[in-house]
Amino acid sequence: MAAARVSMMVILLNCMTLGMYQPCQNIDCSSDRCQILQAFDAFIYIFFALEMVVKMVALGIFGRRCYLGDTWNRLDFFIVMAGMVEYSLDLQNMNFTAIRTVRVLRPLKAINRVPSMRILVNLLLDTLPMLGNVLLLCFFVFFIFGIIGVQLWAGLLRNRCYPEENFTLLPKPYYMADEDDERPFICSLPVDNGIMACSDVPARREGGRACCLDKDDALYRQSLGLSPEPLANGSVSVAGLCVNWNQYYTRCHTGYTNPHKGAINFDNIAYAWIVIFQVITLEGWVEIMYYVMDAHSFYNFIYFILLIIVGSFFMINLCLVVIATQFSETKQREHQLMQEQRARCSSSSTLASEPGDCYEELFQPSPSSSSHRTTFHAKGPEGMTDTYRCLYRGLRQY
């Protein structure tokens, strides 16, 4: 018990040192803070290595009940070997960040020391086969919803309001609600029945007032050698005296960019799965639904409501049911395993206590001898059979 507590203290110390490490500020590790943390890291590695060696000597290396026969011991062995490779590369002035990241697995050594945590981890591992069937069902459901989305809305989220052809005065190629087009204005094509049309593009506003000039005013000012719009102080348009360029974005056409830097679309099944995953997380799904409704039809909300009910509510609760069902079985098995380990630890006294009557039967004073020496006592073949049976029973109890 004392060794287990010391091991847990070292694991907690390792967690603290890993949390205090600052790689961006300690690139060359020249500060006292970094050197102290390195010293603690070396001490922790030496402790884990010595612990592994002691267990190997006590239990053996290969075998069913030896050191490498346990899964968690194999994890400890991998962590120690990865640390050995890391320190050997440091001695050769070589730096492999991927090997250094293995040290974050050291806190996992606490799983084998805490029975309740081990039960939870084994529970997750035991539920993987059962969750595989649930995930397979989720895959088919998402595949069906993805096909529906691709068939209905492929390319529609790229719809933008463009000006008429050969109209070159506009400052932007299509209407943008903001400079970076993070929230695009998605219009509906004439063949669709979406909510938004190019006629719904709002008027341009400057200084809190809608612009009242048109392209003829801009052309007239250009003919006079002036700027298209009146300027105040040489930089800012006078409130209201500006050209309403937005009224000339009248043609809805499929463009080249999708919302959110091209991440949100139904152009293919892969992007459709990304959108479906975001919808079932209930993060930003309303905005995606509005995009689809603007471009295609108002009744597309049915798709998203069904997806949330099936994907977000039904599938997640189904996974929880599987985990809850497996929890009782795993807890019972782990409890039985701990009882067997305790019985194995106390089995050293079993041979002297339980099969003692057999030894008293085998080694007892002979009644025919006048001396007090203990002699082997058995009567004929039947007596030898009873002797073998008694020995066999004693060995099985041991």
UniProtKB/TrEMBL annotation:
Domain of life: Eukaryota
Gene Ontology terms describing biological process: calcium ion import across plasma membrane
Chain segments annotated as transmembrane: 42-62, 130-154, 270-292, 298-323
Residue ranges occupied by any Ion transport domain in the UniProt entry: 6-334
Keyword Membrane: yes
GO cellular component, one term: voltage-gated calcium channel complex
Signal peptide: 1-19
This protein's record includes keyword Amino-acid biosynthesis: no
UniProt main location, coarse: membrane
UniProt-annotated location(s): Membrane
Family matches, as InterPro entries: Ion_trans_dom, VDCC_alpha-1_subunit, VDCC_T_a1, Volt_channel_dom_sf
GO molecular function list: high voltage-gated calcium channel activity
Key words of the record: Calcium, Calcium channel, Calcium transport, Glycoprotein, Ion channel, Ion transport, Membrane, Repeat, Signal, Transmembrane, Transmembrane helix, Transport, Voltage-gated channel
Membrane topology category: Multi-pass membrane protein
Pfam families: Ion_trans
Name of the molecule in the record: Calcium voltage-gated channel subunit alpha1 I
